[in-house]
Amino acid sequence: MKKLVAILLSASMLIGLSACSNSDSSKKKNRSKFTMAETSEVISTETDLTIPSISDTDPTDTVPTDTDPTVPGMPVSHDLSQILVDHNPEVRMYGAIDPTQESEFGEMVGSEFLYLDELVFVDQDDQAVLNYQKALSDIYDAQHDPLARKYEDYLNRFCQYQEEGQTLPNEVFISSSNIFRCDTEILSVAMNNKTLTQEGYGGNFDIECHNFRASDGSRIEISDVIKNPDALLDYLENMYPEDDDICENVASRIGHSDPIMALTYDGVIFPEYWVKVPVTEVPDAFDMEYFFNTPDVYSLYLDNFHRLDWDFDGDGDFEVLECSLQQKDYVVSELDITLDGQTYGFTTNEIPSLGYATDFRDELSHMVSFTETGKYILLTLAKDFLTDVIYVFRIGPDGIEYLNEILDTRPLDVYDPTHMYVVKSNYVLNRSTLYGTYTLNEDGSLSEYTIMQMMCAGPFVLKQDLVVKELDEASWSVGDEITLKKDTPVSFYSYDPYQHTLLMEVLHPDDSDNFIVYAKIDEDDRTISDLPLKEVFAGFRHDY
After folding, report:
1. Which residue in 317, 330, 371, 386 is deepest, having the highest Cβ count within 10 Å?
2. Beta carbons of 177 and 190 less than 8 angstroms apart
3. Residue 278: which of 451, 478, 69, 472 has the closest Cα?
4. Which residues have CB under 8 Å from 142's CB, separation 6+?
5. Do residues 464 and 488 make contact, with C-beta atoms less than 8 angstroms apart?
6. How remote is the C-alpha of 245 from its chain's centroid?
7. Cβ-count burial of 208 within 10 angstroms (0-12 exposed, 13-18 middle, 19+ buried)?
8. What is the residue-averaged pLDDT of the chain?
9. How far apart are the first and last CA of the chain?
């Protein structure tokens, strides 16, 4: 999937064408405002990008501290610039029907899967970009070859088992990235590395964080940012008394080179636990030069207690934003948002779908986004026990108003709300996930940059012959009809949810033999090329 962004753009044009559980009111305590010495206005800059508008670790009951100290001389300023980054994954996979296993859902498919996510900077001329690119290239180069060799070794064994009619293994290697900052001062990225193997049903999972300076590409170490480890550990012990691993892990690695911390504009995040520590809660722990300097367009995560301290109105004082849920019979009955002591309640009368939501999503999936058109609160809730929904609110001069709901969507990279990287679920295509870059609109909706949304679903195996059209990868034009034979392994490559156009990659053990085909999906009838989806693909769980 190299040059994926260019491919999706071309294909889209030529074919026609991304736990604050029921907080008790007794937990909320008044705190003095966090006062800044001065402030600067948010600068609104014009962009030359035209975006199409498309309508349409649980914390304990401990609460943050009662008072916020004053940190003089640290105003919120907006003199940085965002740097645009694209995710450019290399995906390699192969699969076959396991001849020895069958479930109540149909044939089981064994597979090999390799996903290597690389960050590609849009502007290659800026010196900060060049510094970042070199720093990341060193990491990717060291990571890529060992994983690629491991994939080839497992694939060779897989093919041998297939020839001998043995039980087919499953090996999965995934390295994906989350960006927390990327601007003309700091790049902060967390790399999630997963290895899952069939043998012994084992595997490993680790997260490593990398923080770099734009000035020279040098690494920002934990010891550079955390100046008083004892103060930080006291805070963690107080906030998470039941999670000993957090304190022990952080304590053992402060002062060492193990990268476990990501930087945001108002605090630090330990992605291994998805714990955010706002600097306003424990300012004595940090070197403040790394915080409070933002671009003019940016996002801030709410902490694990669904709170955010920030200068929302630019008056030099920090206000407190708090979000909580009231629940009845395991579903949400009311969502409350409190800003600077004023509470705004939203019930199923204002937002009917709240009655299907069950709780806040974890993993810091709630944020406030500051854009040229306003200030927006995005809260991600679990809905129907299976899906996600983002509720969007606007902070205006008259208070907080509800704007929109974004169904079956979960935010991934939100540091730049004009280039949010999100994942959407498609339930027709086997609950497949669509990845894409979106902009947050004034009405609270999302507009995609490319109509064809990236997918990494599969591998599946054809249970019968399927007539499709081959795609000319040189011109990205649709060619003549061809027939894919039964037992051919394929993966879902990308999808246009408006034109219902599916691109599939036909898989071979030697992926240089792979090619792309084009098919039409009828979402109402749940068919592909007029055949029922669940009768076409083995490994396709169409049971919901």
Report:
1. 371
2. yes
3. 69
4. none
5. no
6. 24
7. middle
8. 83
9. 30
